[in-house]
Amino acid sequence: MHRPLTGKVVIATHNAGKLREMRELLAPFGVEAVSAGELDLPVPDETGHMFAENAAVKAHAAARATGLPAISDDSGLCVDALDGAPGLFTADWAGPEKDFPAAMARVERELHKRDASPEGNRRAHFVSALIVAWPDGHEELFEGRVFGDVVWPPRGEEGFGYDPMFQPDGFNRTFGELSSGEKHGIDWSGSQPEALSHRARAFLKLAAGCLRRA
Question: From CA 37, how far away is CA 59, in angstroms rounded?
């Protein structure tokens, strides 16, 4: 039985792009969202070995610090030819300055080392693990994935992170060329809403379990 999520929540992130996406996703449910960054909460050490573990570290830290339910996303790009890298180190590849153009260039360099040409094995997927944690220690996990190919050069200025080099299956545009509405792809008017991005797919599961439309 899922625990309902209402009122005010903390989005356990200092990433403006993630915060923007989560606020857009939460908007239809009348949930007020404030971020860990806006509250000047420290960034906890991500010591997990899975996306879900790192998401839990961040969510529980924010819930304990604020006394509010907290939502945390840990997500990453997993490239088949790189044995799943950058994976858990997706943000680390961008360095302390969060230089994602450099991170994307590193992905491309590593692919060339493995002879993964633009016509070769470029399969990849994004993973999102969403954890909702309450101050009493209760937590719930929701995961989403989206599959596609990495492309070079990067295309588009929408989104953030590695979006400009990821082209989802069934599209001839990258996440960097798709609007947030297209990426989320959620039409709440139907009985079975669908979503495109990994984070939106995880959020659909969270919404079905813990949220009610405002």
Answer: 13
